[in-house]
Amino acid sequence: MKFNVSSSLEYYVQDEGTLIMNIHALRTPAQTILEESLEVDPYYKSEELLAAHGESRLVRFLIDRSTSLKVNYQALVDNCYKEIQVEALTEVPIVQLPPDVLTYLNPSRYCQSDKLYRFADKKFGAIEPAFDKVLAITDWIYENVEYLSGSTNSQTSAYDTVTELAGVCRDFAHLGIALCRALSIPARYFTGYSYLLKPADFHACFEAYLGGEWIVFDATKLAPLNGLIKIASGRDAADAAIANLFGNFTCNVVNVNCELAEGEFKPVFYNKDYPFGLSYI
């Protein structure tokens, strides 16, 4: 399917500083960038940086004076996903995990899986098979954590979310990741553009490593799983932030859009009758 994605951000820069943006659609075997443009006003030379393992495309700007800065990104993206029979999405023994997957078993800044083991094991430890376990985690978060804009901040962790039972998409994703890792299922953060998300914004969900595949899950259930355009993945939001600001920056405007460019679209949400897991790799 082809999607038009765009994002517009405006910053006031108090003095000299460096801005590292993470708003480009990721190039993957399943995601092809057909057209793309980046406009910066006033113009500053940019440098594209590919993350070490290809999990994101970063663009770095050096701002040399006080200014109001506008960054506009647009792309036409052809993406596809793979449907994998649920029966094949079994838990992979740790001894068989690829080296690059092992890191997604460890606690991270926002996903303190070590602190949530007892809770995860009591709630979900006995559920089999592994896909049903992750689905149960996702459903529990959806049913018990209130989606509440403004209820959290950049310091909020999975441990905070399970205590306060409120958050936004990044908090839902962090909690899903932490609970999976607590049960020895590798999980990672997924951020991207999302079709039919209301209101339109950057969206966060997570992927769990099952049956040798990265399978996408969204505990918010705010957007269809087959309408995602990946921007980045990582251990948590610290690895996949939309912007890293080094200096005195104030963000005044964020506008995000994702529209279907062509073809028919049938939204996919997991349920007990849907026999597949979706992978974007």
The percent of residues in helical segments reads 10-25%
The Rg value, from CA coordinates, equals 19 Å
* Low-pLDDT sequence parts: none
Query: What is the arithmetic mean of pLDDT?
Result: 95
How does this model look, in words?
- The chain is of the alpha+beta class.
- The chain has 2 domains: 2-80 and 249-255, Sandwich (Immunoglobulin-like); 82-239 and 267-279, C8orf32 fold, CATH 3.10.620.30.
- Helices cover 17% and strands 40% of the residues.
- The chain has 5 helices and 16 strands.
- Strands 3-6-1-15 form a 4-stranded antiparallel beta sheet, with no helix packed on it. Strands 4-5-2-14 form a 4-stranded antiparallel beta sheet, with no helix packed on it.
- A hairpin with an 8-residue loop joins β10 (187-194) and β11 (203-210).
- It starts with a strand and ends with a strand.
Summarize the structure.
This protein is α+β, with helices and mostly antiparallel strands and 281 residues long. The protein has helices at 99-102, 117-124, 130-144, 158-164, 169-182, and strands at residues 2-13, 17-21, 31-41, 46-50, 57-63, 67-79, 82-85, 146-147, 166-167, 187-194, 203-210, 213-217, 228-234, 243-246, 249-262, 276-279. It has a four-stranded antiparallel sheet with strand order 3-6-1-15, with no helix packed on it.
SSE layout and pairing:
Elements: E1 2-13, E2 17-21, E3 31-41, E4 46-50, E5 57-63, E6 67-79, E7 82-85, H1 99-102, H2 117-124, H3 130-144, E8 146-147, H4 158-164, E9 166-167, H5 169-182, E10 187-194, E11 203-210, E12 213-217, E13 228-234, E14 243-246, E15 249-262, E16 276-279
